[in-house]
User: Fold these one by one.
Assistant:
Number 1:
Amino acid sequence: MNVLTTLKPRVHLVPYHIEGGQPSYLIVAGLVFTPLSESLIEDECEESMGLKLMAKARYSLPKFEGEQMVILSQVLANDVNIGYEDMSNQQVLKLNEIKIKNIRHLAHIVDSCNDKYLIFELEDNFLVVMERQAASAETPQILKDYGIACERSPDLSEPYVNSSEIVNEVNENLDGSPVLNSEIDFDGLLWA
């Protein structure tokens, strides 16, 4: 009996290496978004990432090609983001009720948004709410104040193409991961 099979390497949701060497980033009103990567985890140290985010990073597999865990990595303090300046290393789940698929998708949603507010939904039911026009108007000054040349990495200037829409009928539910909120109790222990 002969069996023909194709083996593929395991694809991790959080990559060990970044293609091109530089991570993608998007800055909106001082909020710095980037995909979670192992190099970022090493730079930040695992303790600052939180147990839930680390469990997802270590044990979740992508549900579709191109999926990324996008995080709010830091906030560049400014009047437009008062109250949010201490936030860091939190996963971004939605923007204006649209589930985030990857950093390029987030940039596309920001660019095409016509709503009055930008409402970022983060892990653990945190919300960041900003008036869209004020956020857009203040971003160039924030970049200047912090000596940042561009609000996004060069790879995010290309148009967004949703490659997962072709296969997305099966993957309608993008919520969750193998690690559920109920699996992590108040002591931060993972029940596996």
Number 2:
Amino acid sequence: MAYILLGAAFMFAGLVFMAGAAIWRGQLSGPGSSRSRLPTDTLEPAQRGVRFLGLQVNWPGIALFVLGAILLLIGAFD
């Protein structure tokens, strides 16, 4: 039972870490956030990119998620 609870906690922590890395990556609007000639009074930048989905930023969250999955599997067969 302890493996299952610990695995669920690790998976949740990894998911929160990855979501936080995507959300808190940078400002959505403001000076320097958009590189196009669109009006600057918008909340969303013209191009955000998908770099926030990369392995370089999310590897701690992915590691926590995988560790949690392994602990859940160990708890299921224990």
